[in-house]
Here is the input.
Amino acid sequence: MTIIEAERRHHYQDLPRLMGLMTGDEKHGPAATSTLDALWVLYDRVLRVGPERMGDPERDRFLLSKGHGPMAYYAVLAAKGFVPVEWLPDFGAYDSPLGHHPDRVLVPGAEIGSGSLGHGLPIAVGTALGLRAQGLGEPRVWVLVGDAELDEGSNHEAIAYAGPTGLDRLHTVVIDNSSASHARPGGIAARFEAAGWSALIVDGRDHEALYAAFTAPHPGRPHVVVARVEPKSA
Here is the structure.
């Protein structure tokens, strides 16, 4: 199925049905559904990616760091034609390419293997640096992390480095479902701002607010959008 065919057949309203095709244990349902709206807005309206340009050096890069609940990610990839919908019912099976953590070798469109928390943002910093070194100024790098991931020190090293380096092609989406163990003085956005980032806080279920935040200008600075959703326990 081509990207045009996928867009004709699948819309946001189809995502619950696509996610419902994935059954079995260890689905991490709350982790998946917390990312659903941000993922859809990115893939539907922001990212310059598609099945036909997965090898294009000028494509945007999207890195799912919050990879321990990939059902929404797989549903969006299926809706946009990266993977066949027919793969979804086999999610998590021993011979399925759709594992409980995404594997970039097996999942078309996945830029990294993920699920081990704290890796995605540092990898995104390295990706942005690599693109800069190659003289590729158009591709944007997006990474989606969970608020609990910010308990990992590797993320704070990445945050502290990216701001002063002026990695303005780097974008981070933090899904804040109040699951972090350690509070940050002033909140998540303040932590990024202290390191020289542009930061916005939005309702993580409001598509127009997400789109406006994702596309807000931030010359000379990396950009973070903190997308607040319902608490994980809710």
